[in-house]
Amino acid sequence: MIRSLGEMLQPVRLLMPALIPAWNFFDVIADSPRIEFACLQHEDEVPQVWQLFRPPPQQQSHGAILRRLVWNPVWNETLFVVSCAERLMRQPTAHSEDEIFRRIAADLRRSGDDLEVWLSFRLAFVGREGEALTRDVRFEAAPRRMADIVVA
What we know:
39% of the residues lie in helices and 22% in strands. The protein is an alpha+beta fold. It has one domain (31-148). A hairpin with a 2-residue loop joins strand 3 and strand 4 (132-140). Helix 3 (73-90) runs antiparallel to helix 4.
């Protein structure tokens, strides 16, 4: 009942691509979307102040960084929202727009913001041209009343 070395290493060979991904994981390096939101008093108000949705922390302790490697549900959700933004640009659907509105509204409700405001978001894409960073707003959602956004 002695197994060959090849048979014993088969599970390791199957697991290795998941543990050590290939360098060409991304097929294309594209502009990175930034989700910015604005709270408005009226539906027809022109947004003046845009805030970045879930900006990355400026500083973190080493312990927090290590903890985030293992457990970071907020970052996982943020990656989902970014993928919705990318899908919204490739193939616009109500689902992607609804999901982004839901996540922004949920964060605002947790922070105790007024439900009587209108909420809008836009997608600004940051890219690189030579040494310079470029920023291009490619999408702006029609405002929705925050009280009407259903948060699961």
